[in-house]
Amino acid sequence: QVQLVESGGGLAQAGGSLRLSCAVSGGIFSDYAMGWFRQAPGKEREFVVTISRSGGSTTYADSVKGRFTISRDNAKNTVYLQMNKMKPEDTAVYYCTADRTYSRTLYGAADYWGKGTPVTVSL
Hints:
Elements: E1 3-7, E2 10-13, E3 18-25, E4 33-39, E5 46-51, E6 58-60, E7 68-73, E8 78-83, E9 92-99, H1 102-106, E10 112-113, E11 117-122
Parallel strand pairs: 2-11
Antiparallel strand pairs: 1-3, 3-8, 4-5, 4-9, 5-6, 7-8, 9-10, 9-11
């Protein structure tokens, strides 16, 4: 059973940075495309970014392009989300996802999800 555990969430000031991590266990990490979704209070879950199994391909939501960077370390079974130039509208619970198919992580249909880590950005 594949398990995903997010960490690194917390409080940041507008313009600041945070780095989220997602540790994966129970499967062969390099078999999975990885992604991040987020859900703000009172809003629907939205796509943030996804990365291919090799790390060679990424897709970002327009709202985070140029500010957020996804990366993965297949030796450490971990995917990262570096968030820079943060805005109050980035406030949300961030979820890590994993699936063997890239498009399923892109469209929120991934087989595996973490429990989320909260991020709050203040002015």
